[in-house]
Amino acid sequence: MMRLWFDKGTLLLRGEAGTPYGKWDPRVGCYRIKALHYSDVLSYLAESRLPFQDDVSNLPPSQTLKDVVELRPYQNEALGKWRRAGMRGILVLPTAAGKTYIALKATSLLKTQTLIVVPTLDLIDQWRKRVADYLGIEAGAVGGGENNVQMVTVSTYDSAYLQAGVLGNRFMFIVFDEVHHLASPSYMQIAEMYIAPYRMGLTATYERSDQRHALLPALVGDLVYTAKVEELAGKHLSPYTHEKIYVELTPEEQRVYDEQMGVFNGYLRERRIVLKSAEDFHRFIMVTGRDKRAREALLARNRAVKVALNSEAKLALLAKLLEAHRNKKTLIFTLHNDLVYTISRRFLIPAITYQTPKEERREILENFRAGDYRVVVTSQVLDEGVDVPDASVGFMLSGTGSTREYIQRLGRLLRKVEGKQARLVEIVSKETMEVRMSSRRRRKTKEEA
Amino acid sequence: MLPSELLAVWKRKGVIWPRYAKLSDDHLEVAAGLIEVYKSHVGEKKSIIKEFTDEVEEKGYDYRFVRGLSFLLDRRSLFKCNDKINAVNLRRKIYHATAGARLATTPEQRRRIVEAVASELKVTAETVEEFFYADLDTELILEEFEPPSPVELLQEYNLSLTQTLLFDSTEVRFTSSGNWQRLFYSVKKLGLIYEAYQDRGFWVKVDGPASLFKLTRRYGTAIAKLLPVIVSSPEWTVEAKILWKYTNEICNFKMESWKHHALLRKPKALIPSFDSIVEEDFAARFQAVATKWLLRREPEPVLAGKQVIIPDFSLEKEGIRVYVEIVGFWTVEYLLRKIEKLKKVDVDMLVLVNENLACEKLAKLEKHPRLNIIYYRDKIQLAPILHYLEQASCEVKAKQTGFVRDLSVVFTEPVVNYEEFAARIGVSAEAVKAALTEKPPQGYTMMANEAVRKDVLEQIQRRLEEQIAREARLCLSEAVKAIEAEGVKDATTALEVLGYKVVWHGINSEKAEVAKA
């Protein structure tokens, strides 16, 4: 009789017949099959009436889930489309639209061993809390020093990737939170090395600038549902305004900026280098390893950008804005950690960066949630998913040109609270390349709308 | 292993290699300089050390090289937070002071809050400022530093650099002069798959399960971890395929011990050593007793179909080779698998099994002619092993004797030396002697170590007789000279065969004479 089993993130089939999904592996003398094709292989063998022994899965013990998730109409619609697509597929919903609840509902319907893959350690904690609240069981966790597999388990992308060889046969349902991450060359192997036949991808920002999102349907299922911020704002999300305030660099800052940018542009002109895309820029950075002058040019550019991003004029304006919004819950976003700490020291307000100890970060967020701390300054860590319930004002002091970041930061402010009017203010230095970065990120969102 | 942005390589025509730090004066100078920076800044902030290392970088060295060295020095450093005041507690107090609608947007408001917190903690306002973020990475204090020598640092850098390059490898193949048990153990533990083959030496190709479907860097990290094990042998060659992510091309990488050994740091823990006291004890006692057998530790693995057998020892004597494996904890299934493997390959194996460590009751094992299991209790008994070897050599000798006999060689040369002839056809000298004694070749006389053509012996006899006729006596040394001149090595036996005896006058062989018996 043929035997099918799991081997370090792949399936092995020993026996007289092969399958259309497998490939003969001379190293071990068996057919080897991507774990992704587990259910295909099962139905192929069943249809062909080939007797076989299935030793693939190694599921953690089942637990009874309670089902108390109530979905909003658009969430129900999304879930329905996913079910009709064979319990596979990608759902695109704005931040704060309650993606989590759809996944929890799906888990309680499937009642099967489930892995939830998330980008950050913060999100592990957040999902575990939701699982406890809405499914009534304690979720396991893999990542951040924990390695505890339960019927419902939450893992980071990193750990799910690194441990695919031992985790790949332990779940039947896999949820990819922020599924756009999955398209990277290494993370996409998670989808290939896990047997789970049921799959759900969630994101607010499906498209990637490198176009790799085109790979996702083969891994997770088709894009089955899309809802935009504009469709939900007002009814399900808070209404919001967005404005941009320009500040002038101080004369000294402007002088340094012009001088340093001059070095950079001078070098580009001399070498006839044109930097149009992120890829161009990356190639340029590669050159700086070999060419000392290229490196000097790059460092000059970085200094100029830093001056523009960290301008004193911005901080002065920020002080005024903080005064003006004295009673509002406020988030301040920056690109660099340096600026986070400058602001934190200057205004004596809590800061969160990747360096903040986990316990302190939890404490700050809790106090912020409770309304004790009213202002938090942060770099990138809060961009994705971290649940900050009802901030209503956001100040963006610097950011990259990324549309995704813009949507995510906006999402931080949009969770629906009665009577809330969200306000996002961008503070941009005039006469610098920052102006261009700012319009780049917004242009994209408008096109989509 | 370094952060990937510090990977410095050369790449040309599909070949890639790391920019190794040469153990030359200028590189050693940079290394020594950086070590000095760390040494002289124990007790200071990390940010200050960084300022100094940045300066070295600005002197025109590849920044990746300088940062790579700093990275390795950081790993030899213990940075600690100045915890005279707990920074997290301090911040909590400050945040509470600015909580709610209270703000510190003017310098005046800010000063008041800082002072209030300072007086609450009974410290100065300056101390509050100093410790506000004392736990940030850049603010940490260098407490201890374990300085390497500049050469060590460069060797460590080169090894790390190579490992970092291997992160992007899709497969690696290597050969090594030893260390096989540890290598195969590591390959297995790292979740890799190997293919072993002979290609002017024993080679192992390593990649992972999913490598079958597409090129993947997934196993690069595991492959990189193998490198220190490979290069801890005296001789090795490593070849890898690198998937260069920036251009998406496959590049070849190769390094060899004769070229790169001195550049790399050899991990201390990997100096070959006996795996167990039992093995060491066995080797020592065996070598003391069975002096004719050559005992080799960790011999080259044996290919058994797709699998390999990695014996603990090989015992060799005159073309006979027996592999020995000492088994600790074991099961019957384990021994059965061993037998399965041995069926595929033409070698003899001796498995020494500790009866006390049996995981199950001894069952009757199918007897396999090539696998001999010897049980022991506390200490390996040599007697049964020697007995087995004796038998094995008898059997082999009998087989070889038969083989030589069946060969029915027709000799023509004046002298046939058993040992030389045995080596030529790959059997033992004893087997040759036995076969030829059984059926002496036409026209030859058999002696102890050689067969001599009869006309050669006659020629010798004529010479000796001439001497005796001329000088009325024949001294031994002259006789030996005359015999050896004809290519016969064993003069004493030749004299005996020709019917002479040696007459000794004292113990000085110069005075000995040869006479008719």
In short, what is this structure?
The complex is a heterodimer of chains A (449) and B (517). Chain A has 449 residues and is α/β, with parallel strands linked by helices. Chain A has helices spanning 38-47, 73-84, 99-110, 121-135, 157-162, 164-167, 188-193, 216-220, 229-232, 251-271, 278-290, 292-309, 312-324, 337-347, 358-370, 403-411, 434-448; strands at 2-7, 10-14, 23-25, 30-34, 52-55, 88-92, 114-118, 140-143, 146-148, 152-156, 173-177, 198-203, 223-226, 240-247, 330-333, 351-352, 375-378, 393-396, 422-429.
**Which assembly state applies to the chains in this document?**
heterodimer
- Taking Cα atoms only, what radius of gyration of chain A do you get, to the nearest Å? 25 Å
Instruction: Please give the number of β-strands of chain A.
Output: 19
Q: How many structural domains are formed by the residues of chain B?
A: 5
Write the CATH architecture name of the largest domain in chain B.
2-Layer Sandwich
Biggest interface reads: A-B, 49 and 43 residues
Largest sheet of chain A: 8 strands, mixed
Task: Report the C-alpha radius of gyration of chain B, rounded.
Answer: 37 Å
**pLDDT averaged residue by residue of chain B:** 86
Question: Key features?
Answer:
heterodimer; A: 449 residues; alpha/beta; MutS, DNA mismatch repair protein, domain I; Rossmann fold; 4 domains; 17 helices; globular; B: 517 residues; alpha+beta; Alpha-Beta Plaits; five-stranded antiparallel sheet; five-stranded mixed sheet
What does this structure look like?
Chain A is α/β, with parallel strands linked by helices and 449 residues long. Chain A has four domains: 2-55, MutS, DNA mismatch repair protein, domain I; 73-227, Rossmann fold, CATH 3.40.50.300; 240-248 and 311-448, Rossmann fold, CATH 3.40.50; 251-309, no CATH class. Chain A has helices spanning 38-47, 73-84, 99-110, 121-135, 157-162, 164-167, 188-193, 216-220, 229-232, 251-271, 278-290, 292-309, 312-324, 337-347, 358-370, 403-411, 434-448; strands at 2-7, 10-14, 23-25, 30-34, 52-55, 88-92, 114-118, 140-143, 146-148, 152-156, 173-177, 198-203, 223-226, 240-247, 330-333, 351-352, 375-378, 393-396, 422-429. In chain A, the strands form three sheets. In chain A, strands 9-8-10-7-11-12-6-13 form an eight-stranded mixed beta sheet. In chain A, β8 (140-143) and β9 form a beta hairpin. The termini of chain A are far apart. Chain B has five domains: 4-81 and 140-153, no CATH class; 87-134; 167-270, Alpha-Beta Plaits, CATH 3.30.70; 277-380, Trna Endonuclease, Chain: A, domain 1, CATH 3.40.1350; 454-516. Chain B is 43% helix and 21% strand. In chain B, β14 (320-327), α12 and β15 form a beta-alpha-beta unit. Chain B is elongated, with a radius of gyration of 37 Å. The chains are: A alpha/beta (449), B alpha+beta (517). The interface between A and B is large, with 49 and 43 residues.
